[in-house]
Every structure is written in structure tokens, then in C-alpha cells.
Specification:
This protein has twelve helices and 14 strands. Strands 2-1-3-12-11-4-5-10-8-9 form a ten-stranded mixed β-sheet, with helices on both faces. It has a two-stranded antiparallel ribbon with strand order 6-7. A hairpin with a 2-residue loop joins strand 6 and strand 7. The chain starts with a strand and ends with a helix. The mean pLDDT is about 95. It binds 3-isopropylmalic acid and magnesium ion.
Length: about 375
Amino acid sequence: MDMNLNIGVIKGDGIGAEIVAEAMKVLDRTAEIYGHTCDYTQLLLGGASIDAHGVPLTDETVEKAKKCSAVLMGSIGGDAKVSPWYKLEPSKRPEAGLLGIRKALNLFANLRPAILYDELKGACPLKEEITEGGFDLMIMRELTGGLYFGERKTVEENGVMTAYDSLTYNENEIRRIAVRAFDIAMKRGKKVTSVDKANVLDSSRLWRKVVEEVAKDYPEVVLEHMLVDNCAMQLVKDPKQFDVVLTENMFGDILSDEASMVTGSIGMLASASLNETKFGLYEPSGGSAPDIAGKGIANPIATILSAAMMLRFSFDLDKEADAIEEAVARVLREGYRTIDIMSEGKTQIGTEKMGDMIASYIV
Ligand code: IPM
Ligand code: MG
């Protein structure tokens, strides 16, 4: 069935515009071959929105995003040491825009796959005996609760400056992300590792209880609980043990960076932030890399794979998503690399050439 894909596009800051342009190129080519059309709505967020409107997120961006079926994003933020954006108060900085749009669109489920690509094994910092056979895990991070959105304040108490950040979860917030994690585990390796700090935190004890209740509806899925400090260790000791890692917002932020580093190829990793509907915000796992912005060397593959994820989750276009993933695999097999994943004997190419090649391999 031919479809008109109504896609919001946030180029964002740093390398965002370059990598998103390549993903759009691949999307357009895929749409052309499979008989769809893409309608793009450009949206401003982060530093780009500060430059235009003085704030990192406007109601206009939220309203326009809500009218789209999905949003593809590049990256948000600049170099805090030099960018004027970081002279603004925290609630007006680029990152506040990202948090704001997550909350405004209720994107509570953040999927961050960490895959060791066979072709890129050389870039993995772990010993070969640990990664033998590869690994493929999915971090399911709760994205609209916990410390990120709890009450915070900085006050003077008895002459001492004191800062508060509160970590709150209610059972409904835990249940909906747990259900998502189990649903996804059913389509993968049927194992959920729920990560918490239940030996210290009340919020983690409630987390564990609710996750156990949800698990009862999924008898085929093996559930294990793991403390977050142990999980940080296990990710480098034996990443193969994981299938779906379910965790709260802050732990997920930290563990997902660790998991992506362990793959050695953060420029390859896609991510999706979803709400209760088919809507999602799709973005590469890497940051805005202001140091290489505008140089034409950034790796667009994570963004291209995010576009594939978008076709799969928001539009149910599995064949089209497969076609993009296969085109990426072919380019890698043939030895083409951007600088971040370059190794001896391979052919180094830039951002645009990588996008061109992947688009030309869509069948
Ligand atoms: C991420 C980022 C954001 C987060 C920052 C930019 C606010 O690190 O998406 O992981 O902490 O969620
Ligand atoms: Mg992070």
C-alpha cells in the first residue's frame, strides 16, 4: 500500500544538519522504490531554536510535532565551554528543549539498542574472548520520570547552600515502561534484566515490585533483577548475558552510554523514544559533536538506522526498514568507512558519500 509519510525533522545543532540530510536522502530513495512519498516538516529545537526564538523549545514546535506521525532528529547541544547558549540559565539551554519535548509528547519509552557489528569488531574495546559470537542488547530507558523531572531547587539553609533533586516514580509510570520492555523481549531473546538500586532506594523497591507484577503476564520471558552498580560491571565483563535491560531514567542515561561505548561504534547506534501511540522521536545515540560539525566527516549511519527504526515502529514498514538495514550492511561489507570506524585496509569516505552509497544500495 502506498503511503504518504508525514515526518517532522529536527536537524538540531552541531553535526545534526549533515547527518539528517543523509537520512532524508536514504528515506527519499526508499520511498521512491517502494511507492511512498515523504512529507517533511522542519522543526526547531535546542540551540537552533534559541538562536531563532530565544528559547530551546516553543509551543509551535510541540504543536507541529504533534501533527506529524513521527519525528526524525539529528542532535541537540553545543560545546558548553564556548557556546553562548550555556551562558543562559539551565532551563533555557539546548538540553532543556530536548527534555521539554520528551515530556510534552509523553515519550516515556526510550529504546537504545547496542549491537556489536561483526564488520566492526575491531573497534570494540573489549577482549575478543568476551565478545566472541557478538552481542545485541536493548536498553529500555524510562524517559519522562525520575530525577530528570522531579522537583528541584537550590536554597540556602542556615547559611549553607543546599541543592535538592527528587527521584519520584509512581506505579503507573513503572508499569507502562515495564509492559513495553516485556513486549519487546517477546520479539527478541525473551529475557528482561530489570536494573535498580533496591538495596538503597524506595523508588527502586517499588520498581521491582511492579516489574514482578507485570512479569506474571509474560510467562515465556525470563526476568532477572540486577543492581545498577553490578550492571555497570557486567556490561564490560559479559555483555552477551543481556537481552532487554529495563531501567529508570538516570540509570538508563548512564548505562546506555556505557553500552554504546562497549560496541566501539556509537556512530552506528540508533534510538527511538515512544509514547502510547505509534508516534516516536528517532535519533542517533551519539551527541552533536560540535568539534567536527561542518567538516563533512560525521558518520550518518546512526541517523540512517534511526530512520529505518522509524519506518518499522511508527509506519509498520518492515520491508522498507529491512532494505535500509541491508544497504548499510552492504556498504560496510564492501569496506567503506567514515573516519570514526575506519581501520586498516578499508576505504575512508565522508558523510555525503556514505549517504549516497547507502541510498544507491536500496533495493
Ligand atoms: C541523552 C542525553 C540527554 C539525557 C541530555 C542531553 C539531557 O545525555 O539523551 O542520553 O541526559 O537524557
Ligand atoms: Mg545521555
